[in-house]
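Entry for the shared binder. Reason: the reviewer on the internal report wants the predicted structure included alongside the sequence.
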Amino acid sequence: MIESTPGPSPTGGGLFSGFSRLCKGLATLLVLVYIVILIFPPAVDYIALVPGKTIPFAWNLLSAGYLEQSIFTLLVSVLGILFGGKVLEPIWGSREFFKFVVLVNFWTLVSTFLLSITLYFISRQETYLYKPLSGFHGVLAGFLVSVKQLMPDQEVTVLKLRAKWVPSIFVLFTTLLGVLAVNAMSFLPFVIFGTYSSWIYLRFYQRHADSSHKGDLSGEFAFVTFFPELLRPIVSPICLLCGKIFCGRTTRSEPENSGHVLGGVPLPGSDDFDASRRRERGARALEERLNFAMKSDSGVTKPAEENV
């Protein structure tokens, strides 16, 4: 069972507590790398992804994801890793959470590198080869896809919409921003490739300790579910083609549910049954954390009220 290998549980109450050592370690890494480039700016060319120098500096395909080049993006990434880990690590376990971060970061950077090389050969503009690219926002986009998978019907309080639509809205907003921005290459490929690579991993390759299946082939997590109902008949053939090209396999669950059902209810051991259990655990874990925070807050304020 996944519950048998959870990440560290909260040790204190309140919104800004209960972060695991892994999450705090990753956040610290982001801060330290940012401090390094502040003290020694030329280090950007060795840490960031510079497509024209990736060979022989191949480590850029890992290091660039942990470099933020502005204080604003650093703050967003630190908060994202802390709160994303607070939700996902207890459900997946520390090892799986760390594996997700590393793989999504690597796939995002490799895809961005290939895109930059392609754009250079098309346009012959050297800016695609020698502009330093970096950022953790590909992994942050992957966190949103993970929330869509685990708790799709959870309402996001700030946006007043279900979690399953947050990744799509984030990509749409980033794309519109990229059309208006001059330096779209510095963030748009990260968000798009981070979203898609995280979906590929969660869809086909993530191993689950509670079943013999890999990934999540349920219809509720098909790639067409990232698009509005009106566009799905148009997008579905494109999604199937991309699945064959990039994933090397077809998805027998698009758009129908996969697995075996009896009377409309998934049977134990089927893909839909396992995916449904994971979503239930995700929603339950989030609810438990919210209740824990509320009880902790009330526990802190109650003695003060009694003293008054």
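Summary line for the report: The longest helix spans residues 271-307.
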